[in-house]
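pasting input
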Amino acid sequence: MNRGRVWLAVMALWAFWGLVSAGALADDRSLPAVIRDVQSKIVKIYGAGGFRALEPYQSGVLISADGYVLTAHSYVLDADYITCTLDDGRKFEAKLLGADPRLEVAVLKIEATDLPYFDLAKAVVAAEGTRTLAFSNLFGIAFGEEPASVQRGVVAAVTALEARRGVFESLYTGRVYVVDAMTNNPGAAGGALTNIQGELLGMLGKELRNARNNTWLNYAIPISQLTSSVELIRAGKVPPAPEDGPDKKLPNPMTLEALGIVMMPNILPRTPPFVEKVRPNSPAAKAGVMPDDIILFIDDALVQSVDSLGAALARIAIDERIRLTVERDRALVEVTLEVPLEEQTPKRKTPEGQGTQTNADGNR
Amino acid sequence: MRLIAAWYCLAILPFTAAAVRAQVDLAAKEEQAIQAAVAQVAPAVVRIETLGGLETVGSFLFGTGPTTGLMVSADGYIISSAFNFAQKPAQILVYIANSPVPAELVSTDHNRRLVLLKVNTDKPLAVPEIASMKDLRVGQWSIAVGRTFGDGKNPNVSAGIISATNRIWSRAVQTDAKISPANYGGPLVDIRGRVIGVLAPLAQDGFGAPGPASEVAGVEWYDSGIGFAIPLEQITELLPRMKETKELHAGKLGVSLKGTDLFSGDVIIAAAAAGSPAQQAGLKAGDKIIEVDGAKITRQAELRHVLMPRYAGDKIKLAALRGEERIEREIELVAEIAPYQFPFLGILPLREPSEEQGVVVRYVFPDSPAAKADLQPQDRIVALNGKPVADRDGLLELMAAEAVDHEVELEIRRGEATKKQKVKLAAYPELIPGELPPAHGEIPPGDGEKRATGLVSIKIPEIANSCSAYVPESYQANVPHGVVVWLHGPGGYQEAELAEAWKEHCGKHDLILLAPKSGDPLKWQRDELEFIRKTLDDVLAKYNVDRKRITVAGVEGGGAMAYLFAFGNRELVPGVVAIEAPLPAGTRVPATDAVQRQVFYVASAKQSSSAAQIQATIQQLRGLKYPVTVKDLGDTSRPLAAEERAELARWTDTLDRI
């Protein structure tokens, strides 16, 4: 009898603790629970590709209970028949609703209901050092109901994207999270980046190289950059087309000749910008530019070679005042140059100015 | 039972919930700590920009983007990775408090691959706190910090753990944080923001890869989970020296050691190179190194751990045993040891089994020191400088302690008479003798196991490549044979044809021809070096091979492989033949070694597409004092003719010349 009562008491206590602990689990959840929850919102996308180094798959994120899928805009979606496999293994044909090529983002729709999803409005932001989880079907390793792969890391940098694919610069140049997890792999594009609480931070980007040092870049586009385009696409509208590149040619660009500067002959791919001669009475001479100066900055932009000097000048109109920072005897000297009105009309090329004239157009 | 189970649940469940909460708490606290550590070190982490410079170094395409440095003293000194300046920029700018300041490259440390920069600024620099190496534990947090993204206002971060200490022969700490050009030159800090070390790409000296001498070696491991940092404790110690010296080089002692196993056997000097610190200190072949600077040395690896971190100009206290006698020397290490040129007496040894001690002369090279001293075939050399000569290998070992122009005293027995004769050693000849007398007479077959002869197929488990060998019908297990490893050119080879071409030479010179095939018949891949090694190991295991007469010969891509294989397996390959093949780009040619001698045979046509590089290869090898026999194939490239094959076989037969 007594023993039975103890038993009951124990069972009651046990049930009580069970409730408490279940509550605790639901509140701040363990890492495995967080991961499992996010995985349920990741889809495997299959489409075009399968030849050369173009894998016919990528990843996506469910962003509504009724089957909207956020993913990267890529060749994979350039197919008559796109399929999505959910975390539970169900397979659906997907319709490409629309894409924003500026952001390289696309929205798909599958016919399903009651799906687990990320509410884009609840996405959060991160800073350098934030611990992250990356979810994707990289290398197409997961099939059917196998969950997406998880990688852990931290946000390495929050920065504007300066990247390239082969020799092409990436279209998107906005803010990204660079992460120190190796997400830069076939099939990862379109996956999710979350913090360790499982809150959505961004969408994993494509395979790109860092344009600054040629290393592979692991990055995600913050959700805040994507929401307005995604809303437009979901509403059946077309996001604005990409603008013309920033390198629109000026009708009357600044030239070294107009400034009166002759640079060291441009014979190497990265000839350093040394001033060889300054023509007497030229704007450069008046401003005090001297032979052997090395031009470091135009306004505040670093100039790393004679080539980049030419390209930088081509973006400045001839009637603008420019500020040069040069190095002379181990000190930085700032000079301001202005081309007088009468010299602003393009002149005949002088033999000595010829080489630099072509450089100023940014071509060699 | 049920009761116990219930109590168990009662005890465990709340604990689990608490543990989960603690785990989540910990993760959040760690995140805060990582961010705080980065903030702590950030003022000392500078962004560096460069102007001008090369586009590529080795096969690495340099970006023009910023790199990172670490302030190390308040008066304007900054440490960075030498990698960041390998492109040799015309101008260096360091950003102090977001404004550019011109910097001067004060010093380059070629051993730890660091540079010291100096900026002229009135602002005092932030000097970071140093993490103590003795408190460092494998598994603890380590955070890599760079300043290369965006406008550089915020540093970039990668978090990992310490994977190992004392790596790269006690010069680096290893981390699994992601280390790349995005943070080379920046600090690796602990969870409190104290600097453990400065991040740099490093590589272990090794298999055909560019060794640590290359400024970009190790970059191929970027972001791989294997990254290195040079301890700041070591750097701080180096600073006074770097401020005064433009170039710091690894210190060299100048000894060759007996045996190639780093981890077993005593550390015994095989030769002290002529003019080296070791030789000047009076160290000799046979001395056993037992102590350096108070640290006990029992294995070659321990000696490396002590010596590799040291610099030219460093003094070491070395203790060695000569017999029973303990000798102690203080030795100053140097940057370069004059390349060792192999000394030459001018004979080929007879390869006949003999009960008697000594080396019997098989052939005397014309105009050699031996010829001048009137040595003749059948003379028996019984002693060199009073030391008895047991056999050919014994004589070669004694010769390793000698140098060109040394005068040595030979004891020679001719018939019943014995005489002593002084001989001045010369350099190795590059000419190949015309006809050679046989290396031995009839040798009665021994009881050795009978092995397959003729065309033999060799299969290496788990490797798809195929391989054939030709073993002469005359093969006997009691006669050591040389090996020619033939690495075909583009297009592979026909087994029967190759066997036919080499049959006569193999029989005449006791040679086995080994011909591995590349997976893709058109080209070799670097990772097939391992396959080649395994085929050679197979032959070594099954046949009686004379390790002094192994040649690796290759045509075009096969020739490139021959170079790589030879430098990666120096103890096995005394002869290297490259036909229409220059040294592969980025290959570091090791210095000559008195014990592991290597000689080269380079054949090319005048209008070969790589004639210029082949000439450069010959120059480079000769500059390092390697003997190079050059064969002119005429105007246009062609396969070797029959007489050239015969010459090659003869050349292999002379690899045991003394």
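fyi Residues 206-212 of chain B have pLDDT under 50 and may be disordered.
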